[in-house]
């Protein structure tokens, strides 16, 4: 990269809920998601605990927002 060159990035946010894993979320299951995205060139940027809206009904369920970054 030369001086003054702008590097562009793209971001991807993945919502993870326990129900997506067929039960309780574990380190092993999260590791699988991280490795799956890393194989496609994504780098972990942040993991945030959040109330993630479910697809059915009102309210939210506890989950994680996993943010990935890679050069565009």
Write out the strand line-up for the largest beta sheet, numbering strands in chain order: 1-3-2
Distance between the termini: 14 Å
Count of strand segments: 3
Low-confidence stretches: none
H/E element sequence: EHEE
Number of helices: 1
* Anisotropy-based shape: elongated
Query: How is the biggest beta sheet arranged?
Result: 3 strands, antiparallel
Averaged pLDDT, please?
Answer: 84
Rg from C-alpha positions?
15 Å
SS-based structural class?
Answer: alpha+beta
Q: Roughly how much helix do the residues carry, as a percent range?
A: 10-25%
How would the blueprint of this fold be written?
Layout (H helix, E strand, L loop, with lengths): L8 E9 L9 H12 L4 E11 L6 E12 L1
Antiparallel strand pairs: 1-3, 2-3
Fold and architecture overview:
With 72 residues, the protein is an alpha+beta fold. Helices cover 17% and strands 44% of the residues. The protein contains one helix and three strands, in the order E-H-E-E. A three-stranded antiparallel sheet has the order 1-3-2, covered by helices on one side. A hairpin with a 6-residue loop joins strand 2 and strand 3 (60-71).
Quick overview of this protein structure:
This protein is an alpha+beta fold and about 70 residues long.
List keywords for this structure.
72 residues, alpha+beta, single chain
């Amino acid at each position: 990269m030369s001086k003054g060159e702008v590097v562009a990035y793209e971001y991807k946010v993945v919502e993870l809920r326990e129900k997506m894993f067929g039960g309780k979320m574990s380190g092993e299951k999260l590791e699988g998601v991280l490795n799956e995205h890393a194989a496609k060139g994504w780098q972990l940027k942040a993991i945030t605990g959040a109330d993630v809206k479910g697809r059915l009904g009102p309210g939210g369920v506890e989950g994680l927002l996993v943010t990935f970054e890679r050069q565009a």
